[in-house]
């Protein structure tokens, strides 16, 4: 598979634009999907958000200046789309933050093969207790193992703040697991 | 799922409980979801071509595309038939060619063939003459074949007559013949003087007319002893 620079070059030509974008999708779709899924929990919701993410990427790729990695740029779009989705869902249902969290927890419990006694399922419930941006930081570090410098480009936050946020998130999750 | 060492170490420093949680993906997705996702997204793109439209030049390129795919699939199929050892070997050309070898090859350029129109006309006349000769030969051969058939018919009659004759009993047939017919035959065949035959006939008739007996004939022919 071609590297990002080659794909971006092919994207600029009308004859190869769609082919290049298909390659980009195939290269990053799984990472983007799971990043979104861990935020919105439900597959159908994640499907909607990931499609919106790539459509936005298509529209904005001509203006992408390559001052950051392509995949950090895609992560940024995906994160914004996920947070926007959650916000809209909250507004539609007139839910508070706590009610929204409860809703997501209920969706986790409704998942296939859910077992509340298992540590990995408790972890998912614990993550949903975190504030939205802290949730994103924890997921990007814990699951995607993203360096703080790249995470800084995704979230437009300093690396120091991100490290502190991750540490706090880890502590909260530990407390939840131990108490549930 | 496997975590990198530095992330695992960082986690262990933060929380041993968290570091010991199994690093697994608990969520499931529909089968073949990622195979269909690009297609779904492409269909949603703005200014995307309708299904009914075909890219410019598509049908001109299609035969080559299909042939290439066929060749590729045949190559892959052949490749699968190979033993593991051969499949694992890299396809490398081990032979070397002198520098500039292919540049030095010059194929002989054949001069363009010039066809003379007049020669063509003359050729047509020859063709007609040749055709006339062939027809003549065929006619002559046909005539000979037909005439041979007639001869064969005549020969066939003679053969039939000979077959009839060879089966005859000749002695019996000769007894049937009278002397007059025999004499006539020999005369016709030139084996006997035809006058003697006639004279012999006349003498007998004359003698019968004279009424001379045999005794008188014997007397005439006795020689005197005087």
Order of helices and strands of chain B: HHHHHHHHHHH
Sequence stretches where pLDDT stays below 50 over 5 or more residues of chain A: none
Average pLDDT metric of chain A: 90
Low-confidence stretches of chain B: none
Using DSSP, what is the number of strands of chain B? Answer: 0
Kindly report how far apart the N and C termini of chain B lie.
180 Å
Short description:
The complex is a heterodimer of chains A (180) and B (226). Chain A is mainly α and 180 residues long.
Q: Please, could you describe this protein's structure?
A:
The complex is a heterodimer of chains A (180) and B (226). Chain A contains nine helices and no strands. In chain A, helix 2 packs across helix 4 and helix 3 crosses helix 4. With 180 residues, chain A is mainly α. Chain A is globular and about 55 Å long. With 226 residues, chain B is mainly alpha-helical. Helices cover 66% and strands 0% of the residues of chain B. Chain B is built from eleven helices and no strands. The termini of chain B are far apart. In chain B, 2% of the residues are buried. The mean pLDDT of chain B is 71. Classes of the chains: A mainly alpha (180), B mainly alpha (226). Chains A and B meet through helix 2, helix 3, helix 6 and helix 9 of A and helix 1 and helix 3 of B.
């Amino acid at each position: 598979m071609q590297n990002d620079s080659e794909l971006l070059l092919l994207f600029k030509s009308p004859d190869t634009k769609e082919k290049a974008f298909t390659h980009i999708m195939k290269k990053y779709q799984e990472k983007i999907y799971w990043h979104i899924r861990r935020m919105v929990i439900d597959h159908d919701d994640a499907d909607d958000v990931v499609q919106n993410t790539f459509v936005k990427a298509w529209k904005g790729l001509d203006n992408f200046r390559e001052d950051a990695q392509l995949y950090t740029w895609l992560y940024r779009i995906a994160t914004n789309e996920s947070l926007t989705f959650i916000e809209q869902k909250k507004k539609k249902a007139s839910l508070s933050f706590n009610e929204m969290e409860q809703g997501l927890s209920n969706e986790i419990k409704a998942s296939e093969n859910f077992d509340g006694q298992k540590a990995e399922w408790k972890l998912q419930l614990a993550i949903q207790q975190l504030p939205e941006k802290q949730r994103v930081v924890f997921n990007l570090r814990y699951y995607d193992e993203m360096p703080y410098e790249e995470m800084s480009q995704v979230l437009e936050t300093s690396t120091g703040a991100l490290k502190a946020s991750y540490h706090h998130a880890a502590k909260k999750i530990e407390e939840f697991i131990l108490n549930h | 799922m496997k975590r990198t060492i530095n992330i695992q170490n960082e986690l262990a420093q933060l929380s041993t409980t968290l570091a010991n949680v199994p690093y697994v993906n608990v969520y499931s997705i529909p089968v073949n979801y990622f195979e269909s996702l690009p297609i779904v997204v492409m269909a949603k793109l703005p200014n995307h071509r309708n299904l009914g439209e075909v890219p410019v030049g598509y049908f001109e390129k299609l035969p080559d595309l299909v042939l290439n795919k066929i060749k590729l699939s045949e190559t892959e199929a052949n490749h699968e038939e190979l033993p593991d050892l051969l499949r694992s070997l890299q396809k490398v050309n081990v032979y070397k060619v002198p520098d500039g070898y292919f540049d030095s090859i010059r194929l002989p350029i054949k001069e363009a063939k010039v066809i003379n129109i007049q020669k063509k006309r003359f050729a047509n006349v020859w063709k007609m003459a040749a055709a006339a000769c062939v027809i003549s030969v065929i006619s002559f051969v046909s005539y000979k074949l037909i005439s041979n058939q007639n001869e064969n018919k005549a020969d066939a009659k003679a053969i039939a007559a000979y077959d009839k004759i060879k089966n005859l009993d000749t002695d019996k047939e000769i007894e049937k013949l009278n002397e007059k017919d025999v004499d006539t035959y020999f005369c016709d065949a030139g084996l006997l003087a035809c006058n003697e035959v006639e004279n012999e006939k006349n003498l007998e008739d004359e003698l019968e007319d004279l009424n001379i007996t045999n005794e008188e004939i014997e007397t005439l022919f006795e020689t005197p002893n005087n």
